[in-house]
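Work Package 4 report. The design task specified in the project plan requires that, given a folded chain encoded as structure tokens, an amino acid be chosen for each position. We show below one input record used in the internal validation round.
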């Protein structure tokens, strides 16, 4: 298999564990094991205490799948396949696509949402978000145009990484009906669902409203548990889930038992965990706003609508990649440049979910004052 390097992950690999301050993580402040276990009810604590470290069920622990289904209207455990989130992208694309298929994918994007399809030999056409003043917008006319040619899969991701863009419910429904009219299946990355920090209701999961659409989600972002490597695909199409599960025999076969039980505990407390994450994002957004407003000659902050990330544009002629490299070399603050998303323009990604954001901003401020 030939696949291009994952630019964002390679950039993180370079600095994530050596830089003192991180300004771009997309997860929300990870919970300590102690905090999570303190939330466990008597029955869930028993599952943890009595866990035997055997192989586990390939589709996922039945109780975990039931709790995931319980987060969605009209779905059951049979509609859920557990996998590591990034693995789930790989399983889904490889189950749905064949060489020569045409895929339309939102741009910019978390690279695997486009790259895995390219590695299969698909033609991947990009559907760019457009800049509209101080925000982002969907170009529905462009989508209509591109869907005139046969498309196997439309790949979307809202709340969006890296911009924090979220369509209105009406726009979202229009996108789904356009895909349906064109005969394209939808793959929807919903990793940031539940991070609607302004109080808006989440968009429905595509798996709730379509018979064929595939939704991906997991515990890494909203639920503050990236280290569990716990995620899932949800879909009403049983054949698809069977194919993805058969492919999982060649990736992980089944999940680690401790991760499954801790995921079960997390989902029993999901509202409290998600509210903790939303509160952190709201607080940090205020700080980011203040920081970039004070430096508006050099940056335009493009505020997120939902999720835990957004971008700021460099408007003083600086190259974003060089800026990020210099910031990490001089003040040990890691910031991700737009190049990691193959994104046109000079942007940096900002992560709003971490408690250490004030320290990271202070370090960036020092670098800018040099
Ligand atoms: C949009 C999106 N999808 C999928 C993933 C993969 O999640 P994980 O790193 O937990 O496997 C990420 C992680 O950053 C993401 O941002």
């Amino acid at each position: 298999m030939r696949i291009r390097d994952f630019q964002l992950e390679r950039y993180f690999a370079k600095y994530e564990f050596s830089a003192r301050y991180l300004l771009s993580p997309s997860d929300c402040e990870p919970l300590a094991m102690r905090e999570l276990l303190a939330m466990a009810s008597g029955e869930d604590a028993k599952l943890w205490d009595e866990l035997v470290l055997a192989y586990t069920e390939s589709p996922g622990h039945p109780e975990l799948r039931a709790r995931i289904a319980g987060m969605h209207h009209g779905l059951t455990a049979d509609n859920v396949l557990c996998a590591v989130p990034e693995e789930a992208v790989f399983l889904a694309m490889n189950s749905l696509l064949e060489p020569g298929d045409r895929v339309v994918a939102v741009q910019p994007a978390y690279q695997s949402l486009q790259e895995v399809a390219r590695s299969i030999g698909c033609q991947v056409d990009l559907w760019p978000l457009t800049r509209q003043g101080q925000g982002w917008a969907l170009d529905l006319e462009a989508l209509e145009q591109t869907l005139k040619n046969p498309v196997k899969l439309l790949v979307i991701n809202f709340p969006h990484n890296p911009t924090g863009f979220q369509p209105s419910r009406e726009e979202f429904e229009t996108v789904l009906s356009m895909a349906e009219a064109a005969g394209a299946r939808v793959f929807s990355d919903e990793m940031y669902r539940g991070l609607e920090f302004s109080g808006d209701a989440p968009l429905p999961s595509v798996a709730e409203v379509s018979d064929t659409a595939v939704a991906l989600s997991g515990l890494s972002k909203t639920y503050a548990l990236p280290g569990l490597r716990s995620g899932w695909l949800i879909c009403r199409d049983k054949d698809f889930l069977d194919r993805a599960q058969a492919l999982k025999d060649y990736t992980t076969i089944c999940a680690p038992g401790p991760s499954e039980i801790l995921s079960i505990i997390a989902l029993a407390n999901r509202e409290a965990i998600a509210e903790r994450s939303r509160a952190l994002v709201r607080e940090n957004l205020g700080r980011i706003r203040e920081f970039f407003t004070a430096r508006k000659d050099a940056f335009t902050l493009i505020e997120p609508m939902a999720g835990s990330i957004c971008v700021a544009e460099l408007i003083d002629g600086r190259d974003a990649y060089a800026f990020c490299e210099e910031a990490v070399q001089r003040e040990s603050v890691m910031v991700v440049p737009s190049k990691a998303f193959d994104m046109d323009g000079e942007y940096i990604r900002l992560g709003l979910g971490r408690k250490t954001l004030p320290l990271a901003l202070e370090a960036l401020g020092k670098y800018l004052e040099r």
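Residues 26, 84-86, 110, 157, 161, 189, 191, 218, 220, 226 surround pyridoxal-5'-phosphate (CB under 6 Å). Validation will be extended to a larger panel in the next phase.
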